[in-house]
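Per reviewer request, we include the raw input and output of the structure prediction for the construct analysed in the revised manuscript.
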Amino acid sequence: MSGTDHSQEKPPIDAPIASSVDDNLGRAPVAHDFAASIRELDTSQGLVVGILGPWGHGKSSFINLMREQFEVEPTLTVVDFNPWMFSGSNQLVNFFFTEIGAELNVRSQSRFGKTADWLAQYAGILKPVSQFIPIPGAATAGEATATALVGLADATNADLSAKKVREKITKELTALTEPIVVVIDDIDRLTTIEIREIFKLVRLTASFPNIIYVLAFDRERVEQALTDDGVPGRAYLEKIVQLSFDVPQAPRKLLRSQVFEELNRILSPVANATLDDRWSDVYWEVIDPLFSNLRDVTRYAISARSTVKSLGNEVNLVDLLAMEALRVFRPELTQELSKLRRELTSTRNITERRDDRTQATMNALLANFPDDDDVIRAVFNRVFPVALQYIENNHYGNDWLNTWRTAHRMAHIDFLNLYFDRVAPDELVAFRSSERAFELLGDGAALKEHLTGLDPEELEEVIEGLTSYESKFTTDMIAPGSITLLNLIDAIPEKEQRGFFDIGRPDITVGRVVLRLLRRVEDEAVREALVAQILESIETYSSQLDFIHSVGYQEGVGHKLVSKAFAEQIQTEFVERLKKAPPTEPEREWDAWRIYDALQTHTGKTPLKPSDDPALLRAVLHSLKSTARSQSMGSRQVNAEDRLAWELLVQVFGSEDAVRTVVSNVRMTLGDDKVLQLADRYLSGWRPERS
């Protein structure tokens, strides 16, 4: 992309150019020469000129360039007639002559005043009989009807016949030193009936002297509209249009240069816009084949600019530009893709068989859009690779989801939904926060500010999202990132509603990220230095012990990231710290029982007494509460039951009597809660039916 700053430029509009100043295609000289050649023709019997080309080829722009030559001395008067302003033959004829007369009066009453008056009278005379103008393809019958029309018109006005008014108009027009140019544009956008009405009108009035009609239309569309009763419309058209010019298609090379120029403008609102290595293939295989003319470029620029401005910082730009091209030029195909979001984004491991229903759906999509087969396959290959597994022998497993998610690819359902719905799903809102957290992993203070500013209920999901960036973790993120996350475990609320198979916990979620950070360092000695650095800054004993166990050799949880000797050393140092000083913020100790169990294991003595700090005692009680979940056979409902690890609780306090005193002291000092009530049930002899 060009380095030019387009950020302050206004978006393009789908309108023809007004002058040669904006002529990017270099057509001005051709248009000027063609207009000059028209001046040289005999217009004593009128002249009808056709500017031909498919929709979007620049016919209106070409006519505007011709106007520049018409303005050269001696200047030609150019009158524009808008065919969209009428409905029905009667209104058309009346409106045409009235409008032309009014325009001439405006241009020069002294030069055209009498002509304008006669045209107005002519409109009034012809209005009742315009319905008799022969229709296209009438051939001999049409000629007879035309003759009848003149006779009928002669008798329609007692004071002045249509024939005499026409003679007056002819006399006034003949006296003009230069012809009048009447431009009728956008004829091919009219309905078939309206196209026929326009050409009836031109046929009726084409013989007026010094009137040059310049008609702009798509030949194929108009010939189709004029075809009647097996008589080809071309034959009818050739009787009316005496001179034509086919506007050439813009050279492909020039068209592409305009596309790239517009893409620079489109991407200008996006900060640090980058296109990944798929861009070249996506452009040539998906976007470029959909452009036919400059109007296509403008349509794409208008649509894509708005979408990129809205989503460019959220969704992968290559995907966004590709899908916008489909949305503008293949709307029906885009609608079908919107219905296939699951099929476009659901991964499949190599051992899984392909879904027959989805296979049939993808085959039907290709069959329904045979002309776009290459484009669809390119979109699948470059934007939605999962879809290829249904038309080719390959697969994409679940491990790809993180890759696509971190790249903001539409191959991930969250970003595809964001594109189609323009509303971020909850999962994507959390992922955005994860992405920001990743950017701040190397700055502990900024990371803490970001995470503590979120809704606490979102924290666990946001931190879990950091695992998607494992491949991008750097060593400078290890200490600040780990310290910040480990110090936030107590701030993450335990989810009240978890699924039957949801075994996540705040400490497990944080641990997964911390371990992935530490694994970025291969040297054991370096890892040990980092572990020591992290331990010094962890604020709670609970997180310290959890971290020690995860990097060491604790059975079932240790990942052996340090030497055995080092693991034993930091465990011993931990116990010594706890012996010397109880927690300064006991309410933050999310695993208070475990830290005192470690102390009890080391000393062999009961570590806690009922007279200890009630806040610490309550933390111990709360840390031993768990929720057991069960599901009945044939039922989807998950049943939950709160429990206490009663034997461990009795062990850490020494006896049930001690526990009873603890419960009483905590309730008296800090008030009642559900855990104390649960402890009362155990003290009364209740036990869960099953463990």
